[in-house]
Amino acid sequence: MSAETMWWHRGLAPSFGLLALVTCVIGLFSVDGQRLVPFAAELAEPAHHGRVVSHMMTGPLGGILLSRAVACFVSELGGWHALYYVGAVLMAVLAVPLHVMLSLKRERPCIPYRRLGG
């Protein structure tokens, strides 16, 4: 089941128990944010790693700071279920450009583990 589907079901939860279960499942499978930063750094030129990582970290930090205000606004307009519907739609829309942009993986040298230490 995709993350978008799980968010959609979260908005339709008829009881707190089902909401808690779906929330736990989403938490178990929501590691994409942690995977995007090193993946973006890997795709960048070595001289630009620091700049790429700082740009990539701006998104999650900005999201953390703005999420409560946006959640209050969306919930006020459409109830608390609307927040999960909006989240599902945004994730589905962003999945396509992320897939296209991040599938352009460059070749990288294969260095044996013993040679990494120096």
UniProtKB/TrEMBL annotation:
The organism of origin for this protein: freshwater metagenome
InterPro entries associated with the record: MFS_trans_sf (IPR036259)
Transmembrane annotation, as ranges: 12-31, 83-104
Protein name in the entry: Unannotated protein
UniProt entry keywords in alphabetical sequence: Membrane, Transmembrane, Transmembrane helix
Gene3D superfamilies named among the record's database cross-references: MFS general substrate transporter like domains
